[in-house]
């Protein structure tokens, strides 16, 4: 009997690898004869890099600029000529102080990481774009890769979304070439009422006036870099990094969990499995919209393998779980009603919770 453990992180308490370890320990307590394979997963957001490393990629540290332009150490993961880059490593919102910089935050650091991977010989980059601090239309990223954004006087335009209104021309004659696949479930266009500034700007500290400034600047940037890509679903991902990746770098966008499962070798890991255990911190309506557990369950169902889920809490009905291919869900709140204790004692509670999972033919 083989059990494949393929969870996402429990945000704020456990990484995906820690979740998998706790579940494996719980299974060993009550089913010591079961063969267990751990494959932590991610959907392109936070944890993507860690999932790649857990699957056998090698972590490489490089210098990269943070969202405020300061140099810091960031990482990517590599196997063969494929690099996995997590945007939040250099351009993440968590890297800014409480006083956000919605008008000037840059994605240049993401470009720094990609450039380092190219110099190291990588020819394919999988870019996960969750958790960005910037609304710069990806301009910082492509600048770090050799593009030049020039104003009417031929001077280079400063970093940040607001400065995009000054762009008069885009020089890509020295742009680095690389095959980029974008892992994202965001389907927002670049600008407009459902665009990057309007929907995500306030989360990054943008006032209503800032949102108007950024939206107008993104609209202008699109007119220079590729207006036909502005309305493409996902152009608004990561403050417009999705737009620049497609319009300037020729990137392809795929649903994050599908791309990551392929990259991590999920189908191979499924071989001979009799049960898949997935999970994330909160099983809720967002789970049903392409988050990692739903993607894992869908892939397992395609092979006729049952799937159950563990979580910190579960807000889905049995019918909703079944619609996602999840046969049953087990939540930490079933053991401990206090959310604070669930967060603080997540690993030990999860190990105990796993004792409740019934394996096929047991």
TrEMBL record:
GO terms for biological process: organic acid phosphorylation. Keywords: Kinase, Transferase. One of its GO terms (molecular function) is glycerate kinase activity. InterPro entries: Glyc_kinase_flavodox-like_fold, Glycerate_kinase, Glycerate_kinase_RE-like, Glycerate_kinase_sf. NCBIfam families: glycerate kinase. Belongs to the glycerate kinase type-1 family. This is Glycerate kinase.
